[in-house]
Amino acid sequence: MPSPPVASFSRVLVAGVTGSGKTTFARRLATAWDLRHVEIDALFHGPDWTPRTSFLDDVRAFAAEERWVTEWQYTSKGTSEILAPRAQLAIWLDYPYRVVRARLIRRTFGRAVLRTELWNGNRERGLVNMFHPDPHQNILAWQTKTLGHWTERMPGLRKQYPHLRVMRFGHPREAERWLRQLSSSAEGASTAPPKRRSRDR
Predict the structure, then answer these.
(1) What is the number of other CB atoms lying within 10 angstroms of the CB of residue 131?
(2) What is residue 184's three-state secondary structure?
(3) How far is residue 156's CA from residue 2's CA, in Å, rounded to a whole number?
(4) CA–CA separation, 34 vs 162, rounded Å?
(5) CB neighbour class for 197 (10 Å; exposed up to 12, middle 13-18, buried from 19)
(6) pTM of the predicted structure, to 2 decimals
(7) Total H helices, total E strands in the chain
(8) Res 108: pLDDT
(9) Of 67, 160, 162, 183, whose Cβ has the fewest other Cβ atoms within 10 Å?
């Protein structure tokens, strides 16, 4: 079986609201482009959901490497100032609310019922927290609170980091189609990111 294609982008950020599927997309891209996937949630959350004091040092360490893909998260903690200058490509999963809401409900419910271990022994906090008013306790409330985060910030980030190519997918179908092009590249499909449409500028 042929090796994954080597892309012209070796350091990639995947942006999107909670529930958009950043980690799944990053994993698939890592496989297609032979990149190291660093799940940034695993660097941030210590046991019992305690933030790890070494978080930013760990982010700096992998950002200095040559080939990686990670989720563009924890911007309020200072990750953008570390990752964006090093990244070459940002993929923005800018999906409709109904899509990300349904995905997040399914994910949260499934993890809670199955008691899925997430990072460093942590598990979903339980279904009762889906009704908690505090966004830091209720992932659904957090999604609502941060829904417009990337729409508001992306124009400024593009100006601040002009070297960073931004590629936007407005629906999971677009992202899936592009990822399938990567996996079928051995049959002659192009692996280059599509040109930005005027609505994405």
Answers:
(1) 10
(2) coil
(3) 40
(4) 25
(5) exposed
(6) 0.80
(7) 8, 5
(8) 76
(9) 162
